[in-house]
Fold each of these.
Amino acid sequence: MRLEKCWFCSSTIYPGHGIQFVRNDAKIFRFCRSKCHKNFKMKRNPRKVKWTKAYRHLHGKDMTQDATFEFERKRNRPERYDRNVTEQTLKAIPLITKIRHDHLKKHIADRHKPGKRKEMQKAAKELEQEQHTHILPKKFISNKPSAEKTKVKVQVVQQHTQDNYMEE
């Protein structure tokens, strides 16, 4: 079973699905659904259409470079399979999936950092502006500092063993 990629949106096309368009120069274009085919006929650029994989790669929305993508690369020449190599590959698949998932989580967290920073700055600015408008009644303000640090004395006792004493 050969799985193809849509020329427009890069999604997977399963056998018996999608549309195939062959240009006069024998270039084959495969589309997963009529939406992609119609956008292609309207001469739209996939890099400018927001829902495509190309747009997401170009604008940093998806991970584009990761070592785990090398395993999914399409290879056109047939490979000779060895039982040991196949067994090792099957054992490595869960590990590779976990690594890819961890990289994706880190990528998403890095993407959200600037937004969170802006949000915190906006909240701090808003709090600073509203600080002058809200005055707390005196009964809520206490003279005692509540966040005082208390000192705690801790005694450390060493157990003496035969090894600790010097021999004469």
Amino acid sequence: MEVEETETKKVEKKDNEPKEFKNRQRVMLLCSRGITARHRHLMSDLQALLPHAKKDSKLDSKSRLYILNELADINNCNNCIYFEGRKHTDLYMWISKTPNGPSIKFHVTNIHTMSELHLTGNCLKGSRPIVSFDKTFDSTPHYKLIKEVLLHNFSTPTTSRRIKPFVDHVITFSIVDGRIWFRNYQVRIH
């Protein structure tokens, strides 16, 4: 009888301990058919910046976007970034929290890829970024929602398999003239 009591006490101790929260955010990156080479380079740059992202093949249908939730579920992802090209000139980026969360549609303009900027310094692949937001994101409720969705998609969890244990770049989001600007800065110590 004493053995059974000690075993139940051990189980009770395990049940009463608070479980540690683990951030298990995974992002699925995919695009529609018909995007240009510049848009594909932007997508590959984002994949290099986000070590917790999984790239999927192109989506054939632009009208049935509910398929994105099923694809994210199959790939064990709870966030999705979808690039939709129109008329070979316009690029739209859908960022969503799958399966039931909000989705935000951005019209992407002023694209500069990392290869065309000829950057001499490179951040290490797989390093975690510091995600920084402008104080304007706290001013209105819809900017707060956009901030949360961007934070879930661009902040790398510490439990991800492909990350390095240090930080060497900063991803910043700022609002200027009603537009959201995304920039990546490398941290260097002189």
Amino acid sequence: MLFGLATLLSGADSQAAGKRSSSVREVPIYTNVSESSPQVIDLGHPTYVEMMDVNWRGAKGRDNVMARIYADGTEVWSGMIPAYDPTFRTSIRRTVQQVEIRIDRGSAYANWAKLYVNDEEGQYEPGNGRGHGHGGSPAFIGNISDADELARRLVHVLRDLQEQTSPEEVRASILPLKKAAARVFAISSASGQLHQTDVYRAVIGLEQEFANQEGFITGLLDMNLTYDSGLSLITIRERYKALFGSVSY
């Protein structure tokens, strides 16, 4: 299905001093996306897209499906779409004309997409104060409260997982993740927007711990008892990455 954003939302941009300012364009989808029916968003002309949110109703007929987003043919995001109602964010940060949403196998129902666009290319370029915090650390795309809430969810998942794993796994994998999550929660809830760099460093530490525990987390997906918890851990990790856009940890 093809949407012409330029036609659909041609009047959505606000004008300031004779120039086009940044804006958010919402594209209704409300259909199943599958291998045979990808969702193509045609911008009509080359447009600078900072990032995009996609809201999903969820995977159909299975626990989750793998979705991918392409900007002018280049993959910019991939992630698991669970069976409930998630919203995922991906950074694009380039001038593109077409964005495509694909599903590897199966299908998932997509509700809408929001594109954060600016026709003045370069407004979001690194070094001009947008997309980066004080001292060169990437700023949050979302809110500091997002980091706080994700840490809270992570601690709850790990707490439930303790009852499903061995004492050795608790000591070697769950407790290190809980400590890293507790640090993110404490700093983000206490510091707020004034100390984004501190929150960023805490999230870096959590991501490093996620990387250390990849084998453990992947193993959770192999057992019915721990599958949901493993999927939750992967989803939370991807959500943290989305807070910082395409930053490499």
Amino acid sequence: MEKGDKKNLLDLLSDEEFFEVIKNDFFPHIDQKIKNLSGYSGVYIDFENFWYSVLDFAEDFLSRYDFEEKDETEEEKRIRQEKNQKTIEFIKKFLDEKIDLLIEKINDKYKTQVRFIKAYADFSNLYAVKEMKEYGFNIIDFLRRKGIQTITPYVRGYKDMSDRALILGVVEDLLHENENISKIFILAGDIDYYPLFEFISHNYRKDFFILSFKSVLSREYYKIFFMKNRIVELDNLVFDFDLDSKELRKHKKEKCFKDFMIAKDIRYPIKEENLKKTAENLGKHYYLNFSEKEVKELSDKFLNSRS
């Protein structure tokens, strides 16, 4: 039998035979730890849900993108476009690192090997996607280069169509055994997915987990007895993010300071006797440590920018 024939027949082998073939024939230096895997897993992403969380992080760390054409000078336009470009670069780096980190942690923690990732969304109508294309960032091309299958529902323009497409995709893979997987990870937060988890729990001997950021995860999942140990919160991944952390913290503090001043209707400059109190209030409100010196510098900076 030729080596090419072996590739076509890999799916017919048992796990033990499969690992033996790839170890001895295709990858002679493969790590022996691969034998300890408990099967393949599949990741299904409600990408619309995930996308808005990513945009929120970008806004928190940097500033909100502004793609709206307006009556502005060439210099104002240049500054606006530079901010947009910086935010888009953040999003690209965030997605690139976080997706890799997520897969790495899934593989390590659950002793599995992610076989595929499928992302569901009406990609052409995702917020800010069209505008980002003008800055050279095509989200579909980006995901495909990461090896992620992008799936757009056949019927578009209606609420929750991507959710339904994801649910049907999982059910189809299970019913027809399209994918040889023993674990299912669904990156979503809506309680709408509960019937899917119940269906898997009652009908299949497969592990399943919901992955989500706290801000978009329905609290109802914590009340369901068989879901409590199947919730994976993604927020801790954010704090592993390494993108010039000093610069990010600086931008975040500036944004929080500016928002705070507007919300409290505080006038610039802040008086010397009020610096300490303002720093304390900022810290309580945003869970960031502001010094009196930082408050003074930010106050002077925004005062000068107005003049």
